[in-house]
From TrEMBL:
This is Helix-turn-helix transcriptional regulator. InterPro entries: Cro/C1-type_HTH, Lambda_DNA-bd_dom_sf. PROSITE patterns: HTH_CROC1. Coiled coil: none annotated. Residues 9-38 form the HTH cro/C1-type domain. One of its GO terms (molecular function) is DNA binding. Pfam families: HTH_3.
């Protein structure tokens, strides 16, 4: 699953998480989350996996792109 910056922001919104909270739970730096969400850099595959797993474990479903783009849903 390729995580988009928009999905990351939306998932945090559904969970009511700050960038800091996601970063701590995923074991990455806050600047990594911030810069990714601002389209400043692409995530390394391992970092992306950590973020996706953390969001999914918290109850977020990341939906693949369709005609309307990628999405998120809370379980």
């Amino acid at each position: 699953m390729e995580l988009s910056p928009e999905q990351c922001r939306a998932a945090r919104g559904l969970l009511d998480w700050t960038q800091e909270r996601l970063a701590v739970r995923a074991g990455v730096s806050r600047s990594t989350v911030r810069d990714f969400e601002r389209h400043r850099h692409v995530l390394h595959r391992g970092t992306e996996t950590l973020l996706v797993r953390t969001l999914q474990d918290a109850g977020v479903m990341l939906l693949p792109p369709d005609d309307h783009g990628p999405g998120v849903r809370i379980r």
